[in-house]
Amino acid sequence: xxxxxxxxxxxxxxxxxxxxxxxxxxxxxxxxxxxxxxxxxxxxxxxxxxxxxxxxxxxxxxxxxxxxxxxxxxxxxxxxxxxxxxxxxxxxxxxxxxxxxxxxxxxxxxxxxxxxxxxxxxxxxxxxxxxxxxxxxxxxxxxxxxxxxxxxxxxxxxxxxxxxxxxxxxxxxxxxxxxxxxxxxxxxxxxxxxxxxxxxxxxxxxxxxxxxxxxxxxxxxxxxxxxxxxxxxxxxxxxxxxxxxxxxxxxxxxxxxxxxxxxxxxxxxxxxxxxxxxxxxxxxxxxxxxxxxxxxxxxxxxxxxxxxxxxxxxxxxxxxxxxxxxxxxxxxxxxxxxxxxxxxxxxxxxxxxxxxxxxxxxxxxxxxxxxxxxxxxxxxxxxxxxxxxxxxxxxxxxxxxxxxxxxxxxxxxxxxxxxxxxxxxxxxxxxxxxxxxxxxxxxxxxxxxxxxxxxxxxxxxxxxxxxxxxxxxxxxxxxxxxxxxxxxxxxxxxxxxxxxxxxxxxxxxxxxxxxxxxxxxxxxxxxxxxxxxxxxxxxxxxxxxxxxxxxxxxxxxxxxxxxxxxxxxxxxxxxxxxxxxxxxxxxxxxxxxxxxxxxxxxxxxxxxxxxxxxxxxxxxxxxxxxxxxxxxxxxxxxxxxxxxxxxxxxxxxxxxxxxxxxxxxxxxxxxxxxxxxxxxxxxxxxxxxxxxxxxxxxxxxxxxxxxxxxxxxxxxxxxxxxxxxxxxxxxxxxxxxxxxxxxxxxxxxxxxxxxxxxxxxxxxxxxxxxxxxxxxxxxxxxxxxxxxxxxxxxxxxxxxxxxxxxxxxxxxxxxxxxxxxxxxxxxxxxxxxxxxxxxxxxxxxxxxxxxxxxxxxxxxxxxxxxxxxxxxxxxxxxxxxxxxxxxxxxxxxxxxxxxxxxxxxxxxxxxxxxxxxxxxxxxxxxxxxxxxxxxxxxxxxxxxxxxxxxxxxxxxxxxxxxxxxxxxxxxxxxxxxxxxxxxxxxxxxxxxxxxxxxxxxxxxxxxxxxxxxxxxxxxxxxxxxxxxxxxxxxxxxxxxxxxxxxxxxxxxxxxxxxxxxxxxxxxxxxxxxxxxx
Length: 1077
What we know:
Elements: H1 2-15, H2 41-62, H3 69-72, H4 87-90, H5 93-106, H6 112-124, H7 129-137, H8 179-188, H9 191-210, H10 228-242, H11 253-266, H12 274-296, H13 310-320, H14 327-333, H15 336-339, E1 343-347, H16 354-367, E2 372-376, H17 380-397, E3 400-404, E4 421-425, H18 427-439, E5 446-452, H19 460-476, E6 481-486, H20 492-499, E7 501-505, E8 512-519, E9 522-526, E10 534-539, H21 546-551, H22 556-561, E11 569-572, H23 576-588, H24 593-596, H25 599-612, H26 619-624, E12 629-632, H27 638-649, E13 655-658, E14 672-675, E15 679-680, E16 683-684, H28 687-694, E17 705-712, H29 717-725, H30 737-752, H31 759-766, H32 770-773, H33 775-778, H34 784-797, E18 801-805, E19 811-815, H35 817-824, H36 832-844, H37 852-857, H38 871-879, H39 883-892, H40 896-904, H41 914-932, H42 935-942, H43 946-968, H44 974-989, H45 996-999, H46 1006-1014, H47 1020-1024, H48 1028-1034, H49 1040-1069
Parallel strand pairs: 1-6, 1-7, 2-4, 2-5, 3-4, 5-6, 8-17, 11-13, 11-14, 12-13, 14-17
Antiparallel strand pairs: 8-9, 9-10, 15-16, 18-19
Helix pairs in contact: 1-7, 6-7, 17-49, 18-19, 19-30, 25-27, 30-34, 30-35, 31-34, 35-43, 38-40, 41-42, 42-43, 43-44, 48-49
């Protein structure tokens, strides 16, 4: 009895009308729960039994009753019949008549012998005897089973994955399951419907692959083919339908097609142009081709544009003006090592086009391999420039750009499921980012890391951080590719061993460089083939008066006037003060005709600089800019520096007197580069520095050649010969720099991240660093094991790590709470215990009546050495504090009596910590800056350079961000977290609150933000949706290129924020995989 009931239930279940599986789901239904999960098997069984009872009742009620007219017209009312008067279709014999013929031809197939044949065929395919008896019992001549109408064979669905408010249009008609007719029907459908059906198939396949459940929620006849058992049942169901009598009121195929076309006509057409769809299809096809090519071959022919869609080439031409790549770039991109994703180091002279190769490799990683990428750059300004430059690519190619510089960046980054991210970071932020990814076990999601200026490995503490970062990547992820590039590398072999990398080098320059030196009043060409390295070229012909010769003994005026104002010139000076003096001196002796050259633009530039300084302007710049001359060094504010760089790039300024930092900063090439002296401060130039400076000569696409002139005194001639002829300096590890601080940081983070926890494992890791490769040269007196163990002992004594006994009797190292907070916050080991003590003391009497106490706690320790207090100013500012603030000062260790005695010049006994006193002076500067928000006023008040004040502000915001992460790891400091997060924001922007949304966009500083706000662009959304053409007309002195970059950067930031919120929503609504059953 039970078996009969089960067999009957099986047949009846397959004959019941199919029901929508997603009918009751909503936008708030968890993603996994929208599919049929195996956890609902009990509910499914109950549902089968209910279907059996409902089907029995329906059959008894409708077995002898014809459908009412209302029921017949339910799906297509006469008023809604869109094809009733379409005579050409109704009378067309070649199509509709053909359907009738097919219908009549299939009528004999409904008899019992036909069913026997089908039964026999399926029995041979493995059906059980019980299933055959079940089929035979329900296929006799009495036709006991009455089946309701099933789903239409051309169910039309319009799916929009991103907009839940759009409904899915489904044509409801009776299903005719005749597979032989499907292709014919599709061939005769309109092209728009074919396109829509193809789109639905694609959406269905994508949805099926994304859902974790075994079933596709969008079930229809256009869905993918079921498994074998479902196919058999489906076919039997179709045969059963064909065997039904006329009393079942099944309509003819003509009516059926008519109803289907009515539903299709009502369906919403895709709101995308045909041209755009074709263009997107071509891009998708090329991306897929590139993926297959990269994965399957190492040949040089990678596809339309080095493995990327041709759209990328169009974007480079549109935004960069690059039509063709140089030969070396094509060679480098098609190297076998690149195709096999081996690590690579490539080196070329400055201005050779290295960055373009890196960007193409990054785009290939993002688009073809669908992996994230990390781009490490040396300075904040370069990071912001790169974010602006690549924003348009991100918008066009659908990836996210995230800035990690200063106080910006989230650790770990948001895990994105729909898009890939390009992280653009400074060296320090890149290290913190890698640490967070290792801890979250997500480093392998980063497929490529590109390091610009790889020679920075040899530059002090920053080089040590870069080495630590790369060593961790090499150890923790075997699938992450590392690409390093530099213009000044010599011992590439050591770096190859460290990075396990291939090497590519070339001496290509797009513009020929000619090097000269000036001795006395003659110019000599640098020629290493000559005995003296210098070959006479020409004498200087500029006529000097006796007064001019006294003021300009080095003939600087003669050298610059040979190229300016029609061409550009850079003059590198040994000190910041010398930059200002030289610029002022040259202006005194220039002809007045220099003022007339682009006079209007220079007047506007002065107005912008004055506006950026809230009415204040440097007296030197006020004198020199009318002549097209300005100085460039760290003493400028960020606004001044940006305005001067933009004016120089546009040709408004023709001469910059600058320090050596410009050579490693933003790209500002010139026709002629003059080195005022072979010294940087008091140190003689290194070969690497010299090559970077002279490498700025020659502007690709503008000049046919560039030239550099080094001004020499007779006493420096021998040193200069060695400078221009010797090879580049070697790049050495800096893990031992500053009393092994780099190695200490490395070992602390290794233990904290659980990368290495025993002395032997730590020694093994250190053996894979650049220091290990160069250990014999750097520390030959001690072996690597001794150095490692000494460092472990130091960290233990400092209370940052502790040792415990392992299960096998070995020593296991663990980080303490302080140690974890130190490496998580990237706090200097020299100050971690001092910071902890300051924060601990602050808990006992934190003063919140004023922000001064919080500012003091986040004032950077390393800035103290760069500033000596003016004791009279210190005392005057101290006396203006409130009583509460003075008590707070005494509590932290700065008594008023001490300041008063220092101001009066009295000698004092030791007893007050000078670090604390000097640090509190810097806190005064920041305190005044947050109240005034005017760098010029604060700089004058404390008698400091305005550039130093702004540098102090930037360092404080970055350090405050580090302190936030430090306090997060120490439960006792929970109260600080919210306070420091808000303080970080105030220190980062230091402007009125209404300007902060605009200044979040990369490259927008206070002066530009004020212009935009006054013009009505008050929010990020305003700027993201602005018209660049309108911006150029509305905002003073904004070029079309600047407007395009600004709008693109705003759109990218807005997209990033929206995507982050969407990821958070999806994560909240995702059905938990570990839900208890």
